[in-house]
Amino acid sequence: MVEKMEALHPNLFFKIGDATFFAEVDAFYENIPYLTGNEIRAGLLRIAALIGDWHTRLISPHLTDGWFPVRVEKFSDGLFVTAVSTKYSGAYGCKVLQIGNLTAGDAFEKVQSITSGDNVYSQIYFAPLFFMMSSVMNGLHIVEDEQILYLLVEDKNGERIELSLEAEPFDSDEFYSWYWLQHAVPTDTYVSIFSDQSEGLPLYIKHFDSPYWFEYLEEYKTVYMCFNQCANDESESFADVNSRLWSYIEANPVDRLIIDMRHNLGGTNTYLEPLIHGVIKHDRINRKGHFFVLTGRKNVSAAVQCIAWLEKHCDPIFVGEPTGAPPNHYADPEFIPLPNSRFNLMVSKWYWMNTRYPWDDRTWIEPHIQHQARSEEYFHRKDPALMKIFEYIEKH
User: Fold this and answer.
1) What distance in Å separates the CA atoms of residue 268 and residue 172, rounded to the nearest whole number?
2) How many CB atoms lie within 10 A of CB 271?
3) Looking at the predicted structure, is the pLDDT value of residue 199 above 90?
4) CA pseudo-torsion sign 306, 310, 316, 321
5) CB 371 within 8 A of CB 387
6) Which residues contact 97 (CB under 8 A, 6 or more apart)?
7) Where in the chain are the domains?
8) How much helix, strand and coil, in percent to the nearest 5, is found in the chain?
9) Could you identify which of 12, 151, 173, 315 might form a hypothetical disulfide with 163, taking C-beta atoms 3.0 to 4.6 angstroms apart as the criterion?
10) How far apart are CA 21 and CA 39, in angstroms?
11) Do 205 and 228 contact (CB within 8 A), yes or no?
């Protein structure tokens, strides 16, 4: 595994010194005869995570033998259950106080330590995936019995609830698309923010399964475009939706454009030109106070490339959270099957310099207007980040 990483990555030790890295590798290798299979799984994940590159990581449904059907996500006010099997539906929306035999905060630090990410924000987004992997949780000693996950949660009334969730089999795809694309948990039926749509959904998750869409917000003379994937939809290509977008803007009293990329994990950057070029060509939109981009922890790969190119060539106001990757980063991985573990190793092959200057060493792209999401905003279907844009429009 390490040999492949050294051979393929153009600059493997761009964050961690080689002496420190190999000391960690040697210590792990020497301990392997004394480790359980689950401890080895966790150790391999940690070795990959030391590189600090989201495109250099281990992926496989074989990382775990079972799955805990609960999604625990981090907000500015703590860890909360955002989706859970219908068998444990009472836990939905609760604050998590204890996970296994650790406090929620200590458990999160453990899973974050084995999470490959370009920066702390992408780690925060992807780390909860490991809470669902029973074998990894056992390998980290968060749970002693890999078949049972103990949770202590607190509901909105302050009442504490103890839960013991059973591990389940689940047929996951290799890239865990159910996690980042469907906002789901590894089970057939579950409760989430999408379960009850009688109150409607905020715009940023209104059509969460669509790669891109837009609508006109007449009150603000603004087009809101939700851009969830750098991909082509079979029903309408990204080039075609951009043609329709700019035709609409040209034919209607549109003063501003909002592009919401908070749920965009990336994809293929070659699709992006119609959007970048469209903004450049439209002076009515491409000026301060008339073009906004919502960003977040999920923005890595082609998504952060898009944001970096918009920053480089246009005049956007960024709103939300910092991006999950730096503007300049390593990407375009090669996939190497590891025969003994049946894991797949991803290793970045190329360095993308997306900004004007090679010395741009920012760890993320900082929003001009920041907002760190709170749990009550999420569960009450509010979107204060978008509201901050509306407040800005009203003031200017």
Assistant:
1) 23
2) 20
3) no
4) positive
5) no
6) 103, 104, 152, 153, 154, 160
7) 1-193+330-355, 203-327+362-395
8) 35, 25, 40
9) 151
10) 19
11) no
* Residues forming beta bridges with residue 335, ordered by sequence position: 346
Over residues 148-170, the mean pLDDT reads 97
Residues whose CB falls within 8 Å of the CB of residue 146, separated by 6 or more in sequence, listed in order = 38, 65, 66, 134, 135, 137, 138, 167
pLDDT tens digits, 138-156: 999 999 999 999 999 999 9
CA distances from 249 to 23, 37, 244, 283, 309 (A): 57, 57, 9, 12, 21
Dig out the tokens for 248 from the structure.
């609409």
CATH superfamily of 1-193+330-355: PDZ domain (2.30.42.10)
Say if CB 276 and CB 284 are below 8 A apart: no
- Average pLDDT, stretch 161-179? 97
> Hunting for tokens 């043609």 — which residue is that?
243
- Amino acid identity of residue 182, one-letter, is Q
In terms of DSSP H, where are the helices of 228-319? 238-251, 273-281, 301-313
Taking Cα atoms as reference points, which of 290, 330, 291, 297 lies closest to residue 311? Answer: 291
Over 80: is that where the pLDDT of 309 sits?
Answer: yes
Give the tens place of pLDDT for each residue, 2-54. Answer: 999 999 999 999 999 999 999 999 999 999 999 999 999 999 999 999 999 99
Tokens standing for residue 67: 């799955």
Q: In CATH, what is the architecture of 203-327+362-395?
A: Alpha-Beta Complex (3.90)
Mean pLDDT (the chain, rounded): 97
